[in-house]
From TrEMBL:
Residues 1-38, 51-99, 400-432 are annotated as: Disordered. It holds the Pfam family Transposase_24. Residues 400-414 have a biased composition (Polar residues). This is Transposase. Residues 75-88 have a biased composition (Low complexity). Transmembrane segments: none annotated. It comes from the Eukaryota.
């Protein structure tokens, strides 16, 4: 068996193909371009498609056509090595970068010192932007930890539920999260895992011409045996075709937001608080806020045209929501523009129902408080009639004593230290 170069028909494809006359199962020409939506391990994918990775040799001086694109992308501020420095093949002076976020302080947070995270409409919004940012960064650090998950899956759907549940429990040991936040956390873990896998592919696979160079410059946190499997998987022509198709689809996307890693929930909160009546911002307002640069950078022509047309239709008397949809079109099933990941029409309806229940509950509490104040007034009048010398302070002290004193010893609360809890129903993991 020997390795050979193959020029793929689609432009800019990487191909590191193994030729074999003795093993017909190594022929991958008939592979499906879609490695199943349910996802699987790379081992299972190789087995299902009859790909033998154990007989590969290292003598693969195969030209990688993606390397030119990767070289052109250098200098974009990304850190290919993740170690605080960028590499340079010409031996030029290395430029320092901050490296990957490890969140060591959060990993070392004691269970009793956890910070509570506030959620609204399924997204974290507080209590401060720093807490929200820490949570997002920590989720990225968790998926880069091989203790929980590695990259040897065709997609996030292939990661076992047990691994995902362990990550959810671990995150709850470092933050106080409402049980309802699990869907958002899982979506963010998925996005962070896909982003990490994409960075590894970009800086350690696409950047180099041969497998020997790829292995020499593999990420230090990924064992060589695992990285070999990733190289083999990414080199399959059908996987490369699917990757090129995804790249083409992303290039068709217009009007990208400029929030970076900033949570849309925070933007929505800021807009809501900026209004006198604290009403919810419209999607048109969210679109403008998330597409307009706060650093004074110009908005691209396509985005500016959408903003101008939307504002024109609103000024002409059209409803904000109708104007937004008429310009940008209806939402795709399961998606809702300008709300951020994980938010759908059904989840919004559910949140609205919960808020309505909370409003009714608050009204009843207020009504009971008013009734109690009225009864206290009557009690005060009766006590002062029976005891002319009793002052208002004496009556208030008597009422307070009756409210705080338990009726009997059996109802006295214990002195067990209370564990901090979220205002919502909170997932409480077992302490180790």
């Amino acid at each position: 068996m020997k390795t050979a170069e193959k020029n793929s028909t689609p432009a800019n494809q990487t191909t590191v193909e193994i030729e074999s006359n003795s093993n017909p199962k190594s022929n991958t020409s008939e592979l499906s371009a879609n490695p199943t939506k349910s996802g699987m391990t790379l081992e299972m994918y190789f087995k299902v498609h009859g790909i033998d990775c154990d007989n590969e040799e290292d003598e693969d001086e195969v030209y990688n056509k993606h390397v030119e694109d990767a070289e052109n992308e250098e200098g974009n501020g990304a850190n290919p090595n993740g170690n605080g420095e960028s590499s340079n093949d010409q031996g030029a002076k290395k430029k320092k970068y901050r490296g990957k976020t490890t969140c060591s302080k959060i990993h070392n947070t004691a269970f009793s010192d956890r910070k509570e995270v506030e959620f609204f409409c399924g997204q974290p919004i507080g209590p401060t932007t720093d807490v929200v940012s820490d949570l997002s960064s920590f989720l990225g650090a968790v998926v880069r930890n091989p203790t929980f998950v590695d990259l040897l899956y065709t997609s996030w759907h292939g990661v076992p539920s047990k691994n995902k549940e362990e990550m959810w429990v671990y995150v709850n040991k470092k933050f106080i999260l409402p049980s309802s936040s699990k869907e958002w956390v899982m979506e963010k873990l998925c996005g962070a895992w896909k982003k990490y896998k994409g960075e590894v592919k970009k800086f350690h696979f696409k950047k180099y011409r041969t497998k020997t160079e790829m292995l020499k410059n593999r990420p230090s946190e990924i064992p060589e045996i695992q990285f070999r499997k990733l190289i083999r998987y990414w080199s399959l022509p059908e996987i490369m075709a699917m990757s090129d198709k995804n790249t083409e689809n992303r290039s068709k996307q217009t009007c990208p937001h400029r929030m970076g890693s900033t949570n849309f929930g925070l933007v929505r909160k800021q807009l809501r608080e900026s209004k006198e009546n604290h009403e919810e911002p419209t999607r048109a307002e969210m679109f403008i806020a998330t597409r307009t640069s706060k650093k004074g950078k110009e908005v691209d022509d396509k985005t500016q045209a959408v903003i101008d047309e939307t504002q024109h239709r609103i000024k002409a008397g059209k409803d904000d929501e109708d104007a937004f949809i008429s310009v940008l079109g209806k939402d795709q099933p399961g998606r809702l523009r300008c709300y951020g990941g994980g938010i759908t029409k059904s989840s919004l309806k559910k949140d609205e129902a919960v808020r309505q229940v909370q409003v009714e509950y608050d009204k009843k509490v207020l009504s009971l408080q008013n009734q109690m104040h009225s009864m206290q007034g009557i009690l005060k009048m009766v006590l002062q009639q029976l005891n002319p010398g009793m002052t208002d302070e004496d009556v208030a002290a008597l009422v307070q004593a009756q409210q705080t004193s338990p009726p009997d010893a059996s109802s006295r609360p214990d002195n067990t230290a209370a564990i901090p809890r979220s205002s919502e129903s909170t997932h409480l993991p077992e302490q180790e």
